[in-house]
Amino acid sequence: MTSRLKYIKNLPVICFLTVSISACSPRLERPVTDQSGYSSVSTTLEKIAYNPLYDGVLKARAINANNFYFLYLHFELPAEKIRYFRFDNGSNVLIKLSDNSTVILFNDNRMRARRKEGLGISTRSADVDCVLSDQDLLRINSSAVTAISLQANNGDFDFDVDTKGDQMLKKLIELISTTGK
C-alpha cells in the first residue's frame, strides 16, 4: 500500500517530466492519405531561429509526400515592426552552411503576410514552401546550418541559426527521410 502512495505522490512530477521532454523533441504527425491514394507525413512545427532586430521567429516543418521532400517555413513578427511583405512564387530561401556554401531553395507558392491578433498581440506571419532535393538533404545534413535568409518583395529577412536550431532542423529532416524508405 505504501508503494502505491509513493507512486501517486510522485505522479505529478513524472507527468511534468514526460510532458517537458516530449515537448522539446519534434514528432511525426499522423500520416494523411488523400482520395487519390497519395500519402504524406509531416513533422510538428518547431522553432529553429530568432532575429532580435525585428523580433522575428522562424519555425520549420518537414514533409514527406510520396518520397518528395518539402521544407515548410513559418515566419512571424510583430505587426508594428512592418506593415506588409510578400514571398513571391520562385523567391529564394538561402540556407548558409558552416563550410561557407549556400543551399538555394525556391518558394513553391505565393504568400502574402497575414495579420493575426490574439492575447493583445498583433503579428504578421507568412509561410514558405520549398522542395528539397536529395542533394539538398545531403548538404544540409553534412554541414551545420548557420543562417537562413528569406527573400521577400521588400527586402530580406535574415536569421542566425544557433546549434540548437541546426540540430532541430536536422532532426526534422531525419524524421521524414526515414519514413518513406
Summarize the structure.
With 181 residues, the chain is of the alpha+beta class.
| Average of per-residue pLDDT values | 80
What is the terminal separation in angstroms?
Answer: 49 Å
Note the overall shape.
globular
Order of helices and strands, N to C?
Answer: HEEEEEEEEEEEHEEH
Number of strand segments: 13
Structural class: alpha+beta
Helix content: 25-40%
Biggest beta sheet summary: 7 strands, antiparallel
Poorly predicted tracts of residues: 14-22
Describe this structure in words.
There is one protein chain. The protein has 181 residues and is α+β, with helices and mostly antiparallel strands. The chain contains 3 helices and 13 strands, in the order αβββββββββββαββα. Strand 7 (92-97) and strand 8 (102-106) form a beta hairpin. The longest helix is centred in the N-terminal third of the chain and has 23 residues, at 2-24. The termini are far apart.
Kindly list the characteristics that best describe this protein.
single chain; 181 residues; alpha+beta; seven-stranded antiparallel sheet; four-stranded antiparallel sheet; 13 strands; 26% helix
Show the helix and strand layout:
Blueprint: H1 2-24, E1 32-33, E2 39-42, E3 46-51, E4 56-65, E5 68-78, E6 86-87, E7 92-97, E8 102-106, E9 111-112, E10 114-118, E11 121-132, H2 134-142, E12 145-152, E13 155-160, H3 163-177
Antiparallel strand pairs: 1-2, 2-4, 3-4, 4-5, 5-11, 6-9, 7-8, 7-12, 10-11, 12-13
